[in-house]
Batch of 4 targets.
Target 1
Amino acid sequence: MAQMNMVEAIRSALDVILDKDPNVIILGEDVGYFGGVFRCTDGLQRKFGEHRVIDAPIAEGGIIGAAIGMGINGLRPVAEIQFADYIYPGFDQIVSELARIRYRSSGDFFSPVTIRTPCGGGIRGGQTHSQSPEAIFAHVTGIRSVMPSNPYDAKGLLISAIESDDPVIFFEPKRIYNGPFDGDPDKPAVSWASHPKGEVPESYYTVPLDRAEVVVAGDELTIVTYGTLVHVAKAAAEEVGVRAEIIDVRSLSPLDVATLASSVNKTGRCLIAHEATRFAGYGAELAARIQKECFYSLEAPISRIAGWDTPYPHAFEWQYFPGKKRVVNGIRKIMEEG
Amino acid sequence: MARKSRLHIPRPSARPGDKPDFSYLDLAPAGSVDKPAIDARTRDIEHLSSGLVRVLDDKHQAVGPWNPNIDAGQLQIALRWMLLNRIFDKRMWQIQRQGRISFYMEAFGEEAVSVGQAMALRPGDMCFPSYRNQALFMYRGLKLVDMMCQCLSNTRDMCKGRQLPVMYHGKAANIFSISGNLSTQYPHAVGWAMASAIKGEDHIAASWVGDGSTAEADFHHALTFAAVYQAPVILNIVNNQWAISTFQGFAGGERRSFASRGLGLGIPGIRVDGNDLLAIYAATLWAADRARRGGGPTLIELVTYRAGAHSTSDEPSTYRPKDEYKSFPLGDPIDRLKQHLISIGHWSDARHEQLEEELKAEVLAAWKEAQQYGTMTEGPFLDPASMFDDIYAATPPHLESQRRYMLEIEGS
């Protein structure tokens, strides 16, 4: 086992799969010679060559469209969109093409593209480098949406995503690339070295694409979350001193309802936490499914903690970010109800 | 021809450690390109897209048909704006390195573009800039202190703390809000120009993108609409050779000039020395006159060099030779205008140094004032409640309720 941060784990996944499968190629802006603006592809072009790790023009629609074409012709492309905030020029290709090729050709054609894209705030990126658009894509049937919260899962899930014959959008919460983050920007940065999930095998392994994970076991409350908020939720539950069961959804679509339902049926209370905006957000789907499966076990209304329904403001990053204080408040409130 | 298909991967002429090599640039002597009539047909002036319009020659003289014959006083003013741009950038870069602002982007090496084009446009013309056009804002009357306040996201920030540094806008100055996404402003400029024509006005629009951004679909949408409706618009491509780490070959610049991108649609293109203020001014004025007289759009490529990093988050020595800009064959825009003014007896090294000192003092004074309106670490701070304003014309109930809850949390 090696110690890896999330960038290294993602690079390791790409390294392993490029080595294992000659059909895998990487395509994206600045991914080749330079190694990516977040260094996720650093050294891969040198190792695998310019025909496997390919620098692309600045055209997200072109990157995704061309990746789809390569996929139709038997390759297994991994497209990088430099920031999730830049993915929208590729929206038509994702929604109208990537997600539907298998369906409209009754299975005769498919394109197993994986789109990697860094998301989320907390790096002073302002409104065009901080977005969490996962709900927009989770809403689109025919593509899988995944978001890891630690290096071990990042590597295992990314390999699964690339090997999957379904298209996958792989969201990388960039605030936790270098270390877990409990939502307090004033505390010194923590590295992955002290975290059990910073232990990452150097060789091939997979983490299944359709399984949520119970991160912390508990019996008083279930917190359903993913991405950066997994770490915030842990810190908040510790602060309140509640025995919360914390579930990392990991696979946003398709969703592992059974793991969520069995937890909430046990605890009777459910708090949902994500960084993305609330209105018609991913939490709404979680709440609806859990309500249906667990209605007779619920002791309090299901509650959501989310980003405000505003763009991500540069000056008010920490008032916007659903940090520990907001999650703590949410926990206290839900524990008092019912 | 090879008997197998092959995948071509563009490669820049030099990487770190290599000797800079700009032999790929098609150059032409100053004065060698003819200046056609304003109403020339596109098919008769296609050669403008592959030539290089230059006015300042290697001996710093203004020559040829494109010489706009601007008087020396105007040129001194232009020099002042370019120098102010550079000094402002150097100061803000330093301020970012000290951790006082979160991010910055400089226009180092490209200052002639914004200044020369601003001079050729009228105040009623609308600008849709990219993120390296700061001199446009300065020229059109934005105060340095207001630009600094934007970078600080402080209480006087025109963006109310919502945008990254350098994403300015200037409603009164007729400059649209800068987006962090690329080329999105290009179709806006075309639409604005179409509206101007619909309303029967003679205002035109101008927009700027980099060489890399021409790959975005919005670039092509803009060209199509501009051609179809013959919109009164000037579409500028600032070819500074680099898009973060990828050179202009990755935007398709290896075989044809960027100025020729519009020819297939019948849009005339002019390839201009982007470090030659006189050439930039003359070409822009030509395109503006043509647009105002119903001649439709012009695509202008400004050949320059991104002498600095892409942004404060970038380190160009990892992908291109260090100090490559010193070998750029079109030189430095400020130095070239300075030498021209000296050669015609209207400037001197001493006056230049004196101007530099004056501008440094002006920038420093603005910085001192800007900090009084707050910094990232010291108040006064913007009211966080304001983050819920301006999402809609009137704030709907669900946002009002989030605002109340946010204040409750922040107050607790």
Target 2
Amino acid sequence: MLLEIKDLHASIGDKEILKGINLTIKPGEVHAIMGPNGAGKSTLSSVLAGNPAFTVTKGEALFNGKDLLKMSPEERSWEGMFLGFQYPVEIPGVSMVNFMRAAVNEHRKYKGEEPMSASDFLKLMREKRAVVELDNKLANRSVNEGFSGGEKKRNEIFQMAMLEPKLSILDETDSGLDIDALRVVSEGVNKLKSQDNATIVITHYQRLLDYIRPEFIHVLYKGRIVKSGGPELALELEERGYDWIREEND
Amino acid sequence: MDNILDEVTGNEYKYGFVTDIETEIIPKGLNEDVVRLISAKKGEPEWLLEYRLKAFEYWKTLKVPTWAHLALPEIDFQDISYYAAPKTKEGPKSMDEVDPELVKTFNKLGIPLEEQMMLSGMAVDAVMDSVSVKTTFKEKLAELGIIFCSFSEAVKDYPDLIKKYLGSVVNYRDNFYAALNTAVFSDGSFVYIPKGVRCPMELSTYFRINAANTGQFERTLIVADDDSYVSYLEGCTAPMRDENQLHAAIVEIYLHDRAEVKYSTVQNWYPGDKNGVGGIYNFVTKRALCKGDFSKVSWTQVETGSAITWKYPSCVLVGDNSVGEFYSVAVTNNYQQADTGTKMIHVGKNTKSTIVSKGISAGKSHNSYRGLVKVSQNAENARNFTQCDSLLLSDECGAHTFPLMDIANNTAIVEHEATTSKISETQIFYCNQRGIPTEEAVGLIVNGYAKEVVNKLPMEFAVEAQKLLQITLEGSVG
């Protein structure tokens, strides 16, 4: 078992957003979490990644059999969790190269490995950039600064390729992408898929799921997973919208 | 979040030790006799004593300047000793004559005084309290005609040069601390680069305050003759003490035609503790006179220490086509205060100046940039570019900018850009999520922010400065 979430509750301030999430993910699986705006999709990804803005009030989560909720955000990263941000953050003055080198070397340190040599690192950068057709120029620019919406999302997948996570959570990676960028990003995700890793795709729309084909679809509504099923559930949502979910649950 | 940054910015000062060495300290207080005593101890010629006395007379008419954006505690100038010297034999000439305690001290500071142990590309003048302890590579430099020695030696050995240039850039009437320094300065460094000579190594002075209840008043004079070049570095540290100590220096640089001088400072005086107790008051007057045509001076400073910093390394661009540059990173943490910046005075034609100032404030500190760009009437085609950025690491710190432009010639082109930013929680979380812990993330962001300035430092210093930025802002590193 890669990730096991039981009855997870989380709040921001006094407001409870997640009200008892149960979810189990095995290596090799691709899950999609769908749901209307405000259902708690982004909160779930933030809480799993350890964003300190949210407080877990109840429940448990095991990642690689370890207590996820006790780990710092960086430990979760070292253990193999990756969050593709809905709104990637700009860090002026820090070049992508330096940023990624710091990240890769922290991961290596955790595994007890020596820092990567500069030439090996640049080779790795080149190789992984190809996965998402990321322009070389972007690698020398400051992290996400002045990147277009599409470049930012591609840059997220590039970082995912660099860090080779066991579990990738892609939070609305499709938002703000035109059809070409959507294809490039999805192909990138598909190339990185293997029997040893898993992906959670968080999305509002079916559109992304034409490219990344999840076996498991979950519908999140008012902080709970109210429905789970196979790919046909996504198609049903596309056809019928979310109103019937609301009607069934309100 | 605030807790995290508090932890990260918790300060640790690793140069705070005291050297146990017999020191000769004259009684506290300042009067004419003290000025005479200092001059006599140095065996100075009559003209220099007269010069000191004139400055002292003038100083007595002045009041402590209060225009800076600093909460200045009252300083009792009679409660300071104006001369302290490690007791050693007169002017040690070889390594064997330098007190082993002193050698140990400078070793501990990373400044080995044995020439064979030194970084090959650097000559050092080591100053402890009021006197120069040792100048390295003096003989090797002399082969090229370069003079690099302590100020006291220069007064004895090169009186004509000193008489000609002392006070030629910073007049003792310039300001309160300049007058004070001129009256009581004890030692410092003198550099002369002859015509057409490129100094083959970095020259550096390392200032160390050791004795308690004393002030350090050093004097640096650099003269670069026609077509010469030198890169000069200055570093400073002091022990941790609960009392504040005064450091009031003057640096003068005189540039002839086509001369180029790079002056770099890594200032790491003891900043006081977390609660703002103790620390050095750093009130310094630094100025370069680009007298010659096509001469060029750059000031690069990384200011991380001192309880209070008050300094404005300036460029007076008299020669036509002369160039002045100022690159600064000033970090304040806890209760530190800094009011720093530069003055670019354009007098000659086609003169150019560049100012890049990066302030970083953490804790409850206050960090101000103060700058003057002055273009005088005859300075045709003067150009200035100023960039002035502030980075805030806490909610309780302050960043202030006081830029002033005084333009009297309408061919001037003057640009000013300014930004203020804060390290946000989302930036830290983004780094954390990629596996970069908060301390390293802050270091990465701060060093990225300061990069433009740090890159101007000579190689070895740049690495040191990067580390220093992290140490100043990070509790557990170092």
Target 3
Amino acid sequence: MSEQPLPLRILPAPLLLARRGSLGGRGSAHLIERHARAYRRTWLVLASGFVEPLFYLLSIGVGIGELVGKVKFDGQPVGFTSFVAPALLATSAMNGAIFDSTYNIFFRLKYAKLYDAVLATPLGAGDVALGEIGWALIRGGLYACAFMVVMLAMGLVHSAWAALAIPVALLIGFAFAGAGMAATTFIRSWQDFEYVTLTTLPMFLFSTTFYPLSVYPRPIQLVVDCTPLYQGIALLRGLSLGVVGPGLLWHVLYLAVMGAAGLAVASRRISRLLLR
Amino acid sequence: MGCPLGVPNYPAGPVNHFELSQALGKVTDVPDPDALIRASGLTKRFGQFTAVDGIDFELRRGEAFGFLGPNGAGKSSTMRMIGCVSPPTGGELTILGLDPVTQGAAIRARLGVVPQEDTLDVELTVRENLLVYGRYFGLSRQVIAERTARLLEFVQLSERANDHVEPLSGGMKRRLTIARSLINEPEILILDEPTTGLDPQARHVVWDRLFRLKQQGVTLILTTHYMDEAEQLCDRLVVMDGGKIAAEGSPRELIDTYSSREVLELRFSTFEHDQAVEKLTAVPADRIEVLADRVLLYVDDGDAAMAGVRGLALEPLTSLVRRSTLEDVFLRLTGRRLEDG
């Protein structure tokens, strides 16, 4: 993961804790290998992750875009579909990471006893946390690539900066997979997943996905400015529409710290839950 | 590997012969340099609750060593500490000469674990379970493929190699778990309640496989609350109760030490029960154990004791003369039956 050196300097303590339980991460590749094998038979489940943002793009982006026309972004008029597409890419990166790191990990943790089996081998809690995030990123990366192909084909990419959209989508995935996995270790039953939806759905609807931040009054703007999905949307939209400045680095920093902190918490919690 | 710890623990300086002979008097006091596992004062606490309360034991290469005790005796907690998935709260534990807290991964690489609850990967087939598990140990696909063929043959699951795990019977899943635990050719195989929850026939198949492993020289360490399992499989065992070790020895030694040669089991009708117990004290016996539904007389000659019972004009509903078992040892040591928990 190319993002790792950055948080290492900012958050030495949690990362040190995360490393204590690990083999240095090599073992995590074996967990990723296990997931790849398990999903070979259920590839259709994998495909759904790509179809969802595509449907949004067609219905809201193209359909509603017909009615809306142009949106003002950075003082320039932009086609609505072009405006919405990068936000949908960010949202799908979030949703994919959250789904993988909450439902799937909860099932493996509580029901499939997968980690109990894994931890009896040389792998440690750090390998489990890193392996799960690695898998979420591989999956998210595939979706991001497919979605970018669609955006290119529909002429929705307006800048060469968009080449960075894939790594940024991975960074968004890293941030949400880390946070999601950390949250999952605190989840007690399936009912608690309502809280996950309660967090992600409003973010999807209100984090400037479908209209610019300027629509809101100032206090609400500040709130939206702090949500993690907004960081991802702002980044991808800037890159896709070619509005790039050093300010974007703050969003990168935010997401990297979020992912690293999530990874550290998740690895410690898995230790505490399973290695009692 | 001759000596996992490197240097045996011989005292430095002049030898005090009195102390040495004192130490040699009891075999258990001499640290065995070849011990694969050595625990002394090993303790595990969960908050206020003490699950394992300062136990000492050694596991020697090639032996089958058992922990016999009811549910809640601290057996599983001990197994988890040995499996390096649960740090000890106190005491010392050395496994293969290594420290389980700091060198857990290196130890786990050389252990095979059959947990109490099946943790098979239900999203994979039988063969894939072995493949993926072998990969966790960093084994190459080729090595795993060779071992898989042998191991599935050994646990009689070759025909089910490409089936999913879910439809397998309980006994088959257990055997697959055993095969999985052997994929890294472990030096120690840890089995936590290997046949709990299996029907009698499936249990015998598992016992047969474990017995074969034992004959091949695999070092086994197992827990059980079945005395017949302990008698069949263990060369040496400890009786565990309330987190402590109550006794240690081979099944034969334990029976010889803590029980009589034979046991006369008597059952009386409920209204005669108490009266009969009083009268029975007249029968010469090492010990009389009164259970809710039966009276056990520990004697050398069960038939002679039965004649004595008849001489007292007592007519039990049923009577049975049998040899002493580990169940009797447990009853003697703890005052409870194994299945009472």
Target 4
Amino acid sequence: MIKEMICVSCPIGCMMTVELNDKNEVLSVKGNTCKRGEQYAIDECTNPVRMLTTTIKVSGGTLPVVPVKTSKPIPKGKMFDCMQVINNEVVDAPVKMGDVLICNVCDTGVDIIATNEV
Amino acid sequence: MQYDVAVIGAGVVGAMITRELSKLDMNLVLLEKAGDVAMGSSKANSAIVHAGFDAETGSLKAKLNVQGASLMAYYCNKLSVPYKNIGSLVVAYSWDDMQTLETLFERGFENGVPNMEIISQERLRAMEPYISEEAIGALWAPTAGIVSPYELTIAAAENAIMNGARVKRNSGVFDIEYKNDMFYLSTATGVIKAKYVINCAGIFADKIANMIGDTSFKLIPRKGEYYLLDKTERKMVNHVLFQCPSAMGKGILVSPTAHGNVLMGPTALDLDFDSKLDVDTTIEGLNEVKFSVNGVIPQLTTRNVITSFAGLRAHRVGDDNDFIIAPSKENEHFINVAGIESPGLTAAPAIARYVGKMFREMDPSYEKKAEFISKRPAPIRMAELSPEERAEVVKKDPRYGRIICRCEGITEGEIIDAIKAPCGARDVDAVKRRTRSGMGRCQGGFCGSKVVEILARELDIPMNKVTKHGNGSKILYNKTK
Amino acid sequence: MLKYDLVVIGGGPAGMAAALKARECGVQKIIILERAATLGGILEQCIHTGFGLHYFGEELSGPEYAYRFIKELEKTDIEVKVDTMVTDILPGNVIVATNNKDGVMQIHTTAIILAMGCRERPRGALDMPGSRASGIMTAGTAQKYVNIDGYMPGKKIVILGSGDIGLIMARRMTLEGAKVEMVCELMPYSGGLTRNIVQCLDDMGIPLKLSCTVIKTHGIERLEGVTIANVDERRRPIPGTEQYVECDTLLLSVGLIPENELTRMAGIIIDPVTNGAIVDEYRQTSRPGIFACGNVLQVHDLVDYVTEESQIAGEGAAKYILSKGKSKSRNGKDIHVKAENGVRYVVPQNINRSTDKDVKIYFRVADVYKDKRVVVTCGDEVLYNKKKKKLAPGEMENVTIKLDDIAKLSSNEITVKLEA
């Protein structure tokens, strides 16, 4: 299988062509102009991950919501599952910067942490 | 509730008439279908006080125009409304135009317009340094001026309330029945009973008249599109600048506004009878404004445009385009005040007095109130005060120290005043018309959400119940969480 | 009478970094005046990550990036007044500010750093015909509603402009359950970072329509839809390509404008291209003792560069204050930096010949270019010449001119340009 993608490792934005076999293993990467591009292409094809940022409802705080992020990137396909869990959560004020608000969200091994104080 | 008089339509004419009638000892109500007063033609027009040389000599329009122009300063002073008597110039570019100026001068003289002059190119250039080199002369009318039309409407409504009148918004009239010498007005907020009705429904005045079987006139919307420019452009224009008139109206004008912006427009496009809500701006219309103004002041561009908008004039179908201000032939207790297109704003104070007199002659039984309050106090305008004066105000109430609208320097205190006023703001645009918050170059980018917050807090409603301009113009949906 | 050595107007990333740097350089009495209720500026609502890669070497969210500076400030005796708006800069470096605690203050100061940031271009400035319905707002306003107030400003969304805020909001609204129909971009290329196009649009399955714009808005009360059309190479809508798109919200991400009202009021000379002050290498404006940095000076794409620039301004202000104003304003007198041939603007626009360190010149290009050389010349002399694979208006570039080179320049003008 052939996949086309734009590299986001730097502003140049190389158009890359990635060749994959049936087991989704990368056979070749073309069009990249640096090593980072190749690594990015392999990661994107085999295990794409993303940081998820959103807010969690706060009760009794100065603001109704507190911004949060995943402590590490999570699998791209799990973003909406994680959103559902996060949307059902309510935390009590005060919330401190870096507080772990949800542990191991959707069994990703990643925590949801506060990125501001409320 | 039973009223002596119900005025339908809280535009500048309806509000000024209500204020005039509030001098009399009676139960008085002003009904408005929109969520605020001044929501039709009164909020989107040229904001000009016309000297009075346009209307046909001998017409009611001519008479009330000239009277209105001379009354405007008095009324704006009483009602604390921005008004500037800057005078107008009709600019001529050809000898044909110069002939037209003569005609206008003659007509103005017959209409009673004082102190007009036809001036030379040199004098025109001295008065308007940025005017096109093609301009060869102008008709100077020193009695013309500029006024804030929606503030005049709001102030008149507030002053009427101070004098006992009721103003019911969101109360559009959809049916009228007349029985036992009494009108029964079905409105969105219930039935209103009234002995007399004054129909000031602007572009919808024909539909209201139809409700009592009066089909004597028909109104179509004539759309006018405008650009409003940044205050940075104010130096380019000193007076109201008209071009020579055409069959469709007074042509596209350029003028400073009472608040120091520059306004250019309007176009004149007749819409069909069913388009009475169509205030969309169009590419064609806006381009016409740009093109036309380029001939007047070539250096004035739309680079610093703040916004564009469109308004509708209530234009009479047929040859007669005079104001209709008379009891209906169907029912003499029903006074039509209709077809009030330009110079309706200018004429409004005179129309109010004219209708007041007409009413008293019709029914002399209502006494004049001894305690009529003619002065509507000026709202606090922090941006117009010196630092020392500002310090004094903030000392008394710290909310005047918290600036919400950066562009116009409007404080929380002023916004709260606008909400708490007799005819108080209920939505974001209403706050904007009363305080100018969001009227500046960022167009509410920063203050919009803060105004929503303040409205929600002061009216004790959730933020997602606050609207932009009433009814379904909601700003926010559900909570995210 | 309130008296300070340095007043910093604006407590966003620029103001905080400038104040901290000035403190570090030995300035004693410093105050930051911030119009919002908290420090941090626009970062407070930018809850996505991607901040700090250059400056901290890690990927932070906006509030986290701001927090680091807020904590640094708390360790110092730098004063902060929030909810405080500066209304005037009077002659003699007197600042008039107002808030609801102190009322109206007159503050005398030796130096001023302008760090007021920028604002978004609103709908009115766009010449977009149509109705006045609700539901048309800037992407930043929507961002505040969603991330701070916790409300959804719409359900079915069209975004005009592919600036980074627009792209970020496309993803944000989608994550919160809205349907983002499309992002329309007038230009044939996006103004946003590639990374944001991939992660905010491609990931979410949102189409990006290039050379496409909104030509009309529909709806009297709430927005009901927009008409979009393709545009030709002169950015005019092509007849016959109109398409109606049903939506209740139109978000605008069509450019940022530095907030220079105070700057103009103070009589400072403005660069018509950047819409910010004309400055020297220490970010001193045409008025001695008044400095500018951050988005009020030029719109940045990365906060890291804002920090860097603000530290330069903070250092410059410190030099000015500690020399008791004797470090004369030499702005415009020594070396003028010119932008030419594909380079749209440069900052700083002036360099003092007697400066004391290397000078980094920031610039933006006018179009998307491939395989061009960035060249800096002074007369016939070439000071810098380097090939770039790709240059785009959305990415701020920079070149460094060495101190040694500055001292021995043969003329009073250097030029930054692109060559084949």
